[in-house]
Design brief:
By secondary structure, the protein is an all-alpha fold. About 75% of the residues lie in helices and about 0% in strands. It is built from two helices and no strands. The longest helix has about 60 residues. It starts with a helix and ends with a helix. The model has no long low-confidence stretch (mean pLDDT about 85).
Length: about 90
């Protein structure tokens, strides 16, 4: 199968040492200030998200405890009803 020179050059990586990456352009004070403002804004958003998640998890834990308590209460009442029905059958 014959390939063009361009296709072969693209398929075969060049050999030899890898050139160093180009240095990043120097940051100006306004770039640094903008970057710090963005970091500060992101940190505030993250703090608010964490606070919201904490509140939500506390509400979930409270709901789970409430449901567990209701299930326990319901089981107790059902046992009482079963015992009373059993006692009533003895008199019939």
């Amino acid at each position: 199968m014959w390939f063009s020179k361009k296709a072969r050059a693209a398929a075969v990586p060049p050999t030899g040492p890898t050139p160093p990456p180009e240095p990043a352009p120097a940051a100006t004070p306004t770039d640094a200030a903008r970057l710090l403002a963005a970091v500060r804004e992101s940190a505030t958003a993250t703090e608010q998200d964490a606070d919201s998640a904490s509140n939500t998890s506390s509400m979930v834990a409270a709901n789970v405890q409430m449901v567990a308590g209701m299930m326990g209460e319901m089981t107790t009442r059902m046992t009482e009803v079963k015992d009373k029905v059993g006692g009533a059958r003895q008199f019939v």
